[in-house]
Amino acid sequence: MTRRCIQSLLALLLLCTLPAAADWPGFQGLNRDGVVPDATIRTDWPDAGPPVLWTADTAPGFGSAAIVGDTVYLLDRNGIKGDRLRALHLNTGQEQWVIDYDAPGRLSYDGARSTPTVEWSFTGRRAYTVGPLGHITCFDLVEAKILWQKHMDDFGAAPPKWGWSQSPLLIGDLVIIQPMADDAGLVALNQVTGEVAWQSKSIGNEGYASPRRVKLAGTKQLITFTATQVTGLSPKTGDILWTYDNIPVKRAIPTPALVGDDKLFITAGYDAGSALIEITHQENIFAVKELKRDQDHGGQIHSALPLGQHLYANLNTNENLRQRGKDAHGLGCFDLAGNLLWKSDNAPDLNRGPILALGQYLLTLGGEDGTLRLIKPDPAGYQELAQAKVFPADQNRNMIWAPMSFANGLLLVRSQNQLKCIDLRPNPATSRIP
Fold first, then answer.
1. Range of the domain at 342
2. How confident is residue 227, by pLDDT bands cut at 50, 70 and 90?
3. Is the pTM value of this prediction over 0.85?
4. What is the domain count for the chain?
């Protein structure tokens, strides 16, 4: 066999085994932005809502699921004893296997907070997780075992007040984690061995956002968000390229959203509000310019979603939730200049529930009332097309805050005790689950 044939065969094998565009291999999907531009979903919902294919019990938690092929991967907790990675069949919800490890301890809010990140290629089939108590774990998905494990303590990191909530990021043969320590802001580990490839200088602390790779100002880079700053870093070396520190926030949770080729939309709770910044790059020098600052409207947990010529965000925070006796801000629509065009206020308020952009539509899940809503994005105002009760309403801290996951026309939603699979395929009677 010629060398060219071997190279072609390897390329074909890689193409056949990498996560497909229809998969959801980690936090907020393929691009970590919560947007699936080519998704086609059912919009003629019956009165009872789209069918629920299955329901699986979970421990309390806030992390979402990864989906690759016909398997769902979920990080869960085993009481106060430890963490567990669960594999469920996408078709039935039946549990295929569980991998437990010791991670004793209590948290202010029980449960795992992050999403597994799945690598599915000819080099191996692995999942990477960050547990709420700081355990960094690489799992072999074929043999259902742990390959290696580290801890945030290894890098001198102090745990955030609400526990570790970030999801690992895969780049090439590296897995990126965010200890937020003085001498290890971000750390790159070898995917196979767990050995340190590089670690960056400080990027601040008290951050719950997951790192993301984007192409910004013509340069591929990592972006992070902590209570101190938003930071851009080199994926190859961890060198800090630029920082933005004009949106101080008590606790940084949403990952900044990419707007066009050179802008980021940043939003947060705790009176931080939102900001639109522009990053430029000339002669190896990066510059940051604040284009818009909105002190009054921010989203506490979930990132804003860019959709067409607008951004949509859940603007509810501790400071404006109706349960605290104030009017909610609800779903908000911004133009790409960072101007707020409208907000849904109390109709609906969404609490701290997640949002997702699928094709030409938005999905929201009420964090308190458990209602799934189908929304037509419109800069003129809020347009709800359908709704369905997915989880029972609970006015006493329902906390349905986990991001949603979507693959092959199926939507996964998580409450504090259940994971549900909802069929959003346009023709569910004739469609087949892979």
1. 31-62+306-434
2. very high
3. yes
4. 1
